[in-house]
């Protein structure tokens, strides 16, 4: 069937921020790199400075609901029904593709998008719809074993495979001169920097990191700086907690960072940490966690919670460590080690970088995707 023609369909697409958008963009680039003829459908967005919208054909549809879906449906109807279509998520992109009569629909699954949530009438209807779409899809590509297991627990007959994500190992690389990077970012030169970069939502568990800091003595805290990059609706509450725990003076609230500067904050760091919680009722989870790979590719060891798809992104004691949910005592142990044995963290960072080069680049990811499509479509 495959005739090297791909239609990629996702409303979560650059210049939108976030992991799914970056993943979609990377998949398109990998197919183009392999010589495929690729077109994309996404919604209209304000094009920000620095973003190029002319690297491949993108058909932008109106952003308003109904008009967005209807215009997408009309575009899809114009393509041959055997066109390979990859959708960013199952709803509504894959549903619209199937309703437009397409047979070769491949769906990307990320974790929270396929969770059932609370037992409500709305979620019951969504579950029926999800079963219909995923069962009709030629293949569901899961970003982690957690995501695949979540699908198979609900719908055992869905044809799925796991393609753990990759990272751009050239863009995210270790710093040649960490001091100059920190100076450019206005970060302290003489402290060990612990970094979290993500949206600041409660389930991302920044509070667990603050509680770990609060367990440390003053001498250890003086050797550390916790740098929080990102924005979100939990920010003000988090700042209040930092003040209550008396650790706010050890935190650098960096705020939003441009995509171009993202590699630098990893390069400036000594340890990355993100202890996301799985909240099934709220459909919140880290389906994989691209940030863990970005840190490790930058030569920075990563700590994550043993929740969701994070164990696929971090191999315990091979470039990072897994801690149990909300275990701020274990986290404090690692922070203290960082302050007194920084060389051990440098060595773990070198292992992290090597693991990425061996098995977790976008090249590795695309090989798995191409193989899966060849075998299933």
What does this structure look like?
By secondary structure, this protein is α/β, with parallel strands linked by helices. It has helices at 19-33, 67-77, 90-99, 121-136, 145-154, 178-185, 206-214, 218-222, 235-244, 262-267, 290-297, 310-313, 328-340, 342-359, 362-376, and strands spanning 5-9, 37-43, 58-61, 84-87, 105-109, 139-142, 160-162, 192-197, 224-229, 251-255, 271-274, 302-305, 320-323. The strands form 2 sheets. Strands 3-2-1-4-5-6-7 form a 7-stranded parallel sheet, sandwiched between helices. The radius of gyration is 21 Å and the shape is globular. The model has no long low-confidence stretch (mean pLDDT 94).
Brief overview, please?
InterPro entries: Glyco_trans_1 (IPR001296), Glyco_trans_4-like_N (IPR028098), Glycosyltransferase_grp1 (IPR050194). This is Glycosyltransferase family 4 protein. It contains 15 helices and 13 strands.
Strands of the largest sheet, in order across it?
A: 3-2-1-4-5-6-7
Quaternary state, please? single chain
Q: Residue-averaged pLDDT, rounded?
A: 94
Q: What is the radius of gyration computed over CA atoms, rounded to a whole number of angstroms?
A: 21 Å
Order of helices and strands: EHEEHEHEHEHEHEHHEHEHEHEHEHHH
Q: Helix- and strand-based class? A: alpha/beta
Count of DSSP-assigned helices: 15
| N-to-C span | 7 Å
Share of residues in strands: 15-25%
- Name the shape in a single word: globular
Main sheet attributes: strand count, strand direction, barrel closure? 7 strands, parallel
Question: Which parts are unreliable, with pLDDT below 50 for 5 consecutive residues or more?
Answer: none
Protein name: Glycosyltransferase family 4 protein
Organism: Sulfurovum xiamenensis
Domain Glycosyl transferase family: 178-342
InterPro entries: Glyco_trans_1, Glyco_trans_4-like_N, Glycosyltransferase_grp1
